[in-house]
Predict the 3D structure of the following.
Amino acid sequence: RKNFVEMAAAKRTARRERSQARQLEMELSQHNLLMRVLTYVEENLLECNQRCLICHAALPYEGLRPGPCDKGMCVLGYEELGMGFDLAQEVLESPYVVDLLISFLAASVELRRLLWVT
């Protein structure tokens, strides 16, 4: 019980310190252009897989790689930047990864752990 109380107190202290640091960072960023830029970059890097890369709207899913939302202009802009997914290029560049993924799929189907939804 004592250990749990100490852990909870440590978490509250750490949360309070982070809050104070964030408040100080916000105050500094109001007067310092470099601090504003660094804060903006930090926030975007931490949330890049949760937001659209083009319009910065929240995505309905969280991907492993940053991507666009479902809007046509965002998808087009993403492809024009050369960041789109090209299946043929992926197969040519990493055939072992593709083989591994297909093997996982086959093993999953064989063990009947993959549910086919129609």
About this structure: The longest helix spans residues 2-31. The chain has a mean pLDDT of 79.
